[in-house]
Structure formats: structure tokens, C-alpha cells
């Protein structure tokens, strides 16, 4: 069985919910990553918009796990301002080279736009092609069912 770590950033709980379900189905570790700033409410939303203009924000993984011991890392992040959020991008900039085996992305978004190209552009930070991704549309959609199906495909690879 592959030793798997699920990581997520979540402002309002949706990505956390999806990643929690994924980790439950896979029976693997789950940790959050964050810049430590509270980003709730309207002011928090505005802060996210400003943060999205930055090139990098220092994020840390809860509990600072030893990343090199995992065979597979699955990174959850929401879309902010038409692309994967700066927190996810910064996580990959900081730790990407330590994700030295399989890497998957789980991206949550409100709308129906296709961000696939921008998501795979994150591969630049791991220095090689990632192993796959799923985009979950959260509005009027059973995204938990979708993440469960995704988890089953990952289980088949074990
Ligand atoms: C600052 C900001 C910008 C966003 N921009 C987009 C966007 O461009 N497209 C989209 O589909 N959703 C956008 N969203 C919605 C989130 O991607 C979506 O609600 C996501 O599931 C939230 O995840 P969370 O609850 O884990 O924070 C945006 C959210 C925030 C806070």
C-alpha cells in the first residue's frame, strides 16, 4: 500500500471537507497548510484578492511532517481569482522538490471554468509532470461523491 499524505488549504471549509473525505477513503494522513492568517468574512475575502497579486506567501504544513517518507502526496487547494490559489502555489514553491514521488492536485472551485492548464503549470515547482488532478465544482454539485470516486481510482493503483 502506498504511504499517502493529503494536504489542504481551506478558507471556508470546502476543500477541507473534500480532502477529509479523500483521506478517509484512502485511510491516510491529512494535514493542513496555511500562512497562519485568518481570512474569514468580507475583509478576509478582500485579503485573499490582495494576496493573489503576490508571487509567494510563506506557508507551513501543520506538524511539519517528513515529506520524503511519503509515496504519494495529494494537495488540495481552492481556486482564487481564476487560478489555483496563492497558498497552494506557495506550498509547491516551498516544498515542491521534497514531494519526490507521486503528486496529485485536488482543486475546488465555485464556477464552471476550466483551470486545467493553470493547475498543471504548478508542475514547474515539483520539477516534473504530476500524476493527476481533479477539479471539483462546489456549487450545485455533489463534489463529495466525485472525490470518493477519485479516491477509488487511486485505491485501484495501490
Ligand atoms: C478570493 C477568492 C477568489 C475566488 N475566485 C474564484 C474563481 O475565480 N473561480 C471560481 O470558480 N471560484 C472562485 N472562488 C471560489 C472558491 O474557489 C470556492 O468557493 C472554493 O471551493 C472555496 O474553498 P474553501 O472553502 O476550501 O476555501 C474564489 C474564492 C475566493 C475566496
Please, could you describe this protein's structure?
With 158 residues, the protein is an alpha/beta fold. It has a single domain (4-156), classed as Rossmann fold (3-Layer(aba) Sandwich). Helices cover 34% and strands 22% of the residues. Helix 1 runs parallel beside helix 5. The longest helix is centred in the last third of the chain and has 14 residues, at 143-156. It is globular. The termini are close together. It binds flavin mononucleotide. Flavin mononucleotide is lined by residues 10-16, 45, 48-49, 78-82, 108-111, 113, 138. Flavin mononucleotide binds at residues 10-16, 45, 48-49, 78-82, 108-111, 113, 138.
Please give the CATH class: Alpha Beta
User: Helix content range of the residues, please?
Assistant: 25-40%
Quaternary state of the chains:
single chain
| Whole-number tally of structural domains | 1
Topology pattern, helix = H, strand = E: EHEHEEHEHEH
Shape: globular
Major sheet attributes:
6 strands, mixed
Category from helices, strands and their pairing: alpha/beta
Walk me through the topology:
Elements: E1 4-8, H1 14-26, E2 29-34, H2 41-51, E3 60-61, E4 72-78, H3 86-95, E5 102-109, H4 116-120, E6 132-137, H5 143-156
